[in-house]
Write a structure and sequence with these properties.
10% helix; OB fold (Dihydrolipoamide Acetyltransferase, E2P); mainly beta; five-stranded mixed barrel; extended
Length: 146
């Protein structure tokens, strides 16, 4: 059995671009930066950054283009794919992650840019730091409709 699986968590390096294929399928592409911290031979702390090209198809791509912006964090799950094409007589290559799933990271808060666009929990006041109040009566499992 063979496996081609990629899991990445990082920040977008540019705003997503949404395009449509001739078949009508929507395609979203964006860059994602990941970093790692390690110690070199001398014991000094080093940081390395890798840049990844991400492609998302269909409804997931539309949603990614709508909600993600440069600098936002995202968790991408997908597969590696390389493609090539001819440009000005030169063969060009590109390796990208074709995402099966994109999860949006936590939103930055406090600015006017994020006002009114918060998660439902924020709108309900759950993020205000107050504890959630649960009903005191017992819940009967027979009352649950599913």
């Amino acid at each position: 059995m063979y496996l081609n699986k990629v899991l990445l968590y990082g920040n977008l390096t540019r705003d997503p671009e949404l395009r449509a294929l001739p078949s009508g399928v929507q395609v979203c592409s964006f860059g994602l930066a990941t970093n790692r911290v390690y110690k070199d031979r001398d014991g000094n702390r080093q940081e390395a950054t890798d840049f990844h090209n991400i492609v998302v198809f269909g409804r997931q791509g539309e949603t990614s283009a709508q909600y993600l912006k440069k600098g936002a964090s995202a968790f991408v799950e997908g597969r590696l794919q390389s493609r090539s094409w001819e440009k000005d007589g030169q063969k060009q290559y590109r390796t990208e992650v074709v995402a099966d799933r994109v999860q949006f990271g936590p939103r930055g808060g406090g600015s006017a840019a994020s006002a009114g666009r918060g998660a439902p929990e924020e709108a309900a006041g759950a993020s205000s730091g107050a504890p959630v109040e649960y009903p005191e009566e017992e819940i009967n499992p027979d009352d649950i409709p599913f």
